[in-house]
Fold this sequence. Notes:
homooctamer; alpha+beta; 4-stranded antiparallel sheet; 6 helices; 45% helix
Amino acid sequence: MTKAKKLLTTASAVVAAGVVGAVAANAATPAAGAKDASLRSTRHLTIAAATKAAQATLDAAVKEGQAVSVAVVDRDGNTLVTLRGDGAGPQSYASAEKKAFTAVSWNAPTSALVDRLAKTPNLKDIPGTLFLPGGAPVQAKGAPVAAIGVAGAPSGDLDEKFARAGVAALGG
Amino acid sequence: MTKAKKLLTTASAVVAAGVVGAVAANAATPAAGAKDASLRSTRHLTIAAATKAAQATLDAAVKEGQAVSVAVVDRDGNTLVTLRGDGAGPQSYASAEKKAFTAVSWNAPTSALVDRLAKTPNLKDIPGTLFLPGGAPVQAKGAPVAAIGVAGAPSGDLDEKFARAGVAALGG
Amino acid sequence: MTKAKKLLTTASAVVAAGVVGAVAANAATPAAGAKDASLRSTRHLTIAAATKAAQATLDAAVKEGQAVSVAVVDRDGNTLVTLRGDGAGPQSYASAEKKAFTAVSWNAPTSALVDRLAKTPNLKDIPGTLFLPGGAPVQAKGAPVAAIGVAGAPSGDLDEKFARAGVAALGG
Amino acid sequence: MTKAKKLLTTASAVVAAGVVGAVAANAATPAAGAKDASLRSTRHLTIAAATKAAQATLDAAVKEGQAVSVAVVDRDGNTLVTLRGDGAGPQSYASAEKKAFTAVSWNAPTSALVDRLAKTPNLKDIPGTLFLPGGAPVQAKGAPVAAIGVAGAPSGDLDEKFARAGVAALGG
Amino acid sequence: MTKAKKLLTTASAVVAAGVVGAVAANAATPAAGAKDASLRSTRHLTIAAATKAAQATLDAAVKEGQAVSVAVVDRDGNTLVTLRGDGAGPQSYASAEKKAFTAVSWNAPTSALVDRLAKTPNLKDIPGTLFLPGGAPVQAKGAPVAAIGVAGAPSGDLDEKFARAGVAALGG
Amino acid sequence: MTKAKKLLTTASAVVAAGVVGAVAANAATPAAGAKDASLRSTRHLTIAAATKAAQATLDAAVKEGQAVSVAVVDRDGNTLVTLRGDGAGPQSYASAEKKAFTAVSWNAPTSALVDRLAKTPNLKDIPGTLFLPGGAPVQAKGAPVAAIGVAGAPSGDLDEKFARAGVAALGG
Amino acid sequence: MTKAKKLLTTASAVVAAGVVGAVAANAATPAAGAKDASLRSTRHLTIAAATKAAQATLDAAVKEGQAVSVAVVDRDGNTLVTLRGDGAGPQSYASAEKKAFTAVSWNAPTSALVDRLAKTPNLKDIPGTLFLPGGAPVQAKGAPVAAIGVAGAPSGDLDEKFARAGVAALGG
Amino acid sequence: MTKAKKLLTTASAVVAAGVVGAVAANAATPAAGAKDASLRSTRHLTIAAATKAAQATLDAAVKEGQAVSVAVVDRDGNTLVTLRGDGAGPQSYASAEKKAFTAVSWNAPTSALVDRLAKTPNLKDIPGTLFLPGGAPVQAKGAPVAAIGVAGAPSGDLDEKFARAGVAALGG
Lengths: 172, 172, 172, 172, 172, 172, 172, 172
């Protein structure tokens, strides 16, 4: 996988160059740059890792005879991967994305967040969220970097079991 | 893969049974059935095949140093798989889905459809469509069953080249 | 009905051919095909059957002096037929679609699902759903293939009675 | 059909009574009424007529081997009937509704309106409209009362031919 | 007011003629008509009456020193008139429309419907509805033809008092 | 009108007091205030003036036998008044609002802005805008304070003529 | 800051002139003006004050080691300033805007409004609102002119503490 | 600024800890981690830098007497900062965000992209984009990390001049 990563790094540079090439006269102006002091870094799952996790999630569901949809979102809530499992109900696709969004927002499994609603019921009115079991966070040194959401199994606990299997596949 | 397929078939039955189990008193009523004469069959990519095609599409882009997003949609326009490639621009995710939707709607590569707009420019106002190269249909005996959409490369022609690589991976 | 079906089958081929004809240079490339191993089949109500069921549903309501809207959706949640009954309230059209979506998602009458919310109240936050009586699933060998939703009668139980009449008209 | 109509008229009264019954204490207040001078009448297709027209439209398409979606909207732009034909592309459903909306808004076939855009191109930015052939108005004494929209055939002219067949079935 | 009404009736004919004139070749085809048997009539508030009612509603609020928004919708849920009172809160405009929609859908004051939720809490998930006092139906012989919605006063009961004043202005 | 204005001013104070009363413990904290130096004033049409202008607009249309919708928006794009004229097409309501929004955004009649698109065609992709004649700005000392939008007449020039009649009714 | 304000006042006049200049033939017509009697004034935070308050809010959060998003909205609910703090969760941005909208709508801290829901639970269904602590109103002589919303801290009480710090920075 | 940064780093850890604390039993499971090989880093403007750039942008506009809105978005298209300048037209807020989104998507000033549309006009149908001058990218070593969008000045060229002033303030 190191090779793939290297390729990708190169790719990024090439892309930037390519695009800049198309509009070179403007983008080359000095004003376009930002000092290092203006920047901070965030960590994201590579698409290779996100795909691997999503696949492991789906495999865990199929192994138990369940038809589910799977979503992986990053820390900013952007969807990285979706898989609509064979036979999964039409409600499962959006549910999986929202569960993942919820898990990464609070850096916690959505099953734990459901309990939290007892104290603060209106949390569930926040746009993009869904407070049902089936979302599991992915962390790097305790900080949230992504989450996996699953929907479509007969219970949310089953959904979340599969999501955890996906997280486990990241081997952290 | 035959084993996986078998598992899945079993899974579907189990799922149905599971759900019905939860609400047995009602779902067991005879009125819920439809005669065979009321039914028709449609063909879909399995999620295994769709994932394979999406991965082959992304691999083709990475190999050429391009950062793209990839989407696979079925004949009804439902998204089966999405992959947001490392470094792909934020506009690429929705673009990929819409290109795939467009390709499957007309059963043609979106590059061919762009030409078609010369005669009927308002086609591009149809909801869900995007008339940019980068969408490629997947067919079974000439009929559309799915499509792959790609966005994020410096040109739509490159996007579509990668989409075709994904279709080729289906080996039809 | 066999004749109509035959016509339709022919029609599909013609359509595909017609569209391909318009963009022949591209669509004829070998890369567009998918192997049989990549495909699975799903069953859908024919539009003829769906229309018949929707009409039977509306007739049942009119017979009891009720003004309702009716919707039939397929297993993927796509709407196949809608009928806005004479005098039906403006809220009934969207309600009927959402009830049908909910019934097909869980393969159960929505009246049964309302009870299920007691245990998992947040299910009702899943996009596209509406947990009110009036949705009835259509099954083929126990698996969900469609659902009928009704709204506008003074009670959800009445709505669901009419939906069941529609399912019964499919004679399965 | 007279009998059905009679039933329906009765039905309306019953419905109103039923609902009022549920909330009788309030709805019975005198303040709820409007004088005749405050009211005007508009004419609408009955759902029976709208369904008949939609079916005739779809039959015309199937007869020519085309897979289309059909929509009937009333003068206020509300959808009365939709039919998603077997095998119709996913883009056709929303297109059919928008073509019908456009035809009833300008009381003209959408094919005629396409020409009109030459003078006023931004008409096509009005929400809900789609300026593609395939929409046909239904009139009562020259005034628009409804429209039929069709989408999915290889050309808009074919779509509109089928829509006209639906209008013809109303026998006016 | 009779003169205005007469003017309007003439106006409608002129409008139709005008538009048809613009696209005469097509709209003049015999196929555009619908037989009387295909039609039913519905009653609507004239815009003159709706404006009068809205103004009376706002006047009632201002008289009591309250800043509110007012909406009048017809039986199909289409908005006829809106007035955003001076100083009304930003949440009031959409609230007023939704209260009116809710009142006309169930032909009852929304204060009465709030009670109804005790039995069927999920009614409030129906799109377009808002179950807060402040909506009052307008009826013609007991059937709903319109509704007035008010929002922005410190209590819903006050909102509804103003709405009733608007209905009363219709003098039915 | 001075009396009405006075009433309203009083009303605002009362409303604030009323609401504060409901939540007194918190709202009474000193931290809630803003110094005068932090504030600027903007001018708005009173609802009385906006209603008068909207009515004059509609009257002008009816006088010429045209069925239109009318909207008045303030400088921030918020809708103050809407009137859906008797018989106005379903596309006219949203069109009127968007024309008014466009006129107030550029402080110019939309007929003038249409010409402007020749140089900068993509202006019309700005959300909320519609570049069709029929919108007229309302100014106070040359600065935009509101706009009137009209839609539904056979030509945009007619629409704008009626909008101008509405502005004229403000007598500035 | 007085100088900046002066500049701005000049700026407004220039802008108006600039725009009018572009479309002079039309905008110069006498009909565009409104009499003073047609106008009322409202007070708004200057962008300078709103930015200062937003920054003070964020500073208060960072000082306590919390990652939050901040929004300032005006009395009409329009957003004036947003700041997405480093590391703030993806759910925080929209939440902050909605809390501010809610606080300005009822001229009260959202923590106080949460209690209010006990009596009127459906208030939370009003579009644009979010009934979670973290919103604080800004007042001028008791009337609401703006509000600050904060989201992302582990508790809503913390969010609201920061919002109050922002209001305090306005020094009123 | 190093101190602020340090505070923030600490803050992130605290936040995570706080949230985890609330749901400790679950989040503490080993399965939540991701290996370093699964992660990649991206660079973002700090909120401090983004605010500084937005303020410099607005200052440049005010200095020339122009009323504009300003938006800063990150590489993933998420909005970091918005400022609605005093007197800016209602269309400017959304325009500024879309221009920034467009600039960061193609890593080029939007003025350069407008030219690009000559070859590929349908690029402008990609969701979230707006092809008008006024967007300027922010780069780190040539790669896009953010963009600034401006709208509201009489010409897009002016808008973009102000956006460049904001980028220049980052001193890169």
